[in-house]
Write a structure and sequence with these properties.
With 326 residues, the protein is an alpha/beta fold. It has eleven helices and eight strands. The chain has helices spanning 40-49, 78-84, 128-139, 154-201, 203-215, 218-228, 234-237, 242-256, 265-272, 281-287, 292-320; strands at residues 5-8, 19-21, 29-33, 52-55, 66-71, 89-91, 110-112, 119-122. The protein has a five-stranded parallel sheet with strand order 4-3-5-6-7, with helices on both faces. It is globular and about 65 Å long. The protein starts with a strand and ends in a 6-residue tail after the last helix. 35% of the residues are buried.
Length: 326
């Protein structure tokens, strides 16, 4: 079958790219991991390239058959999983190199903020040499000259070993600081901003009136966890954990003000997090090299079990919190 190349550029506020997707007889699949529905961006890529479109929530394919993966990650691990495997990755959300796998998210393999207008047919190609050089650069494998054969002294060997240890600790420290700057500090700023808006505008009072009956009672939290765990809702609520963060900030503010009894804090945590990880299920199974049949049955199994385990976790949290704040 004759496949066609496409060029994908970043959208408004996006990062990376442009990417030239070159499908062939081996890499002939467009893998869509965006929830229960196939995203229009994935549909257009498949249409222009002639590739087979695969829903990552219903099945999976071997990595070597994936020409491009389309995700809708808001900044968690999913946006870096496929770049780590050196699979071309298109994120429909305008997210840059963030998350625990940020070091693998490079412009030569990743592009974000993509809309249908960012996808065009092209005659451009990327040579195998260019791909290899990009992979080496991303892995930090710069070409090195062959070491000279000489008789090094003990002092020189000791100095080299110490230098290696120092560089290792330095690299670890740099990655730690980078993780704090990229992930923890933005989350703190986000939380502070949301809390400030809720407090200054009085929006908190409006939302509290609607949410308090659910967060403020065990039956309400059971209902909330059940709703968050509904299979066709949970993958939509999962990306970036935005919903859990928003409700968590509001609930935390209400607990701090004494509007809700503190012993309900633990079950409330389980109530708002019933959907956590549901958007990551097919990616996690893929990382575990699961067979296509396992993914096909495993994804709905995990999604449906959240309806059961969500309310149960709320009850367990409530029982364990008895006497905790006495």
């Amino acid at each position: 079958m004759a496949y066609k190349n496409v060029k994908i550029t970043k959208g408004a506020g996006g990062f990376g790219g442009p990417l030239v997707i070159q499908p062939n007889e081996t890499k002939s699949k467009v893998l869509c991991v965006t929830g229960q529905n196939i995203h229009p961006v994935a549909k257009k890529i498949a249409e222009l390239t002639g590739c087979e479109l695969v829903d990552g929530f219903s099945t999976t394919v071997p990595d070597e058959e994936v020409a491009v993966a389309v995700v809708n990650c808001g900044g968690t691990a999913r946006c870096g999983v496929y770049p780590r495997k050196r699979i071309m990755t298109v994120n429909v959300e305008p997210v840059g190199a963030v998350g625990p796998l940020a070091q693998y998210i490079t412009p030569d393999i990743y592009v974000s903020g993509v809309t249908e207008s960012c996808i065009k047919s092209t005659d451009e190609t990327v040579t195998a040499e260019a791909e290899l050089e990009a992979a080496d650069a991303a892995a930090g494998n710069a070409p090195q000259a062959a070491p000279e054969e000489d008789n090094r002294s003990f002092v020189l060997k000791l100095g080299t070993s110490i230098g290696h240890v120092v560089n290792t600790f330095f690299a670890a420290g740099r990655q730690s600081v980078d993780a704090v700057i990229r992930n923890i500090l933005p989350f703190m700023a986000f939380t502070a901003t949301i809390l400030g808006i809720i407090t200054a505008t009085g929006l908190g009072n409006v939302i509290a009136t609607a949410v308090a009956p659910m967060i403020g009672s065990v039956p309400g939290m059971i209902l909330l966890s059940f709703i968050c765990g509904i299979p066709f809702i949970s993958p939509i609520l999962g990306p970036g954990a935005v919903i859990a963060q928003l409700v968590g900030v509001l609930a935390g503010n209400m607990f701090a003000q004494g509007a809700i009894a503190p012993q309900l804090a633990l079950p409330a945590l389980f109530a708002i997090d019933a959907q956590v990880g549901c958007d990551f299920v097919p990616v996690g199974l893929s990382l575990g090299e699961a067979e296509p049949e396992t993914v096909e049955y495993g994804v709905p199994a995990v999604l449906y079990e959240r309806i059961v385990t969500g309310p149960i976790s709320v009850l367990v949290g409530f029982v364990l919190s008895i006497g905790l704040y006495a």
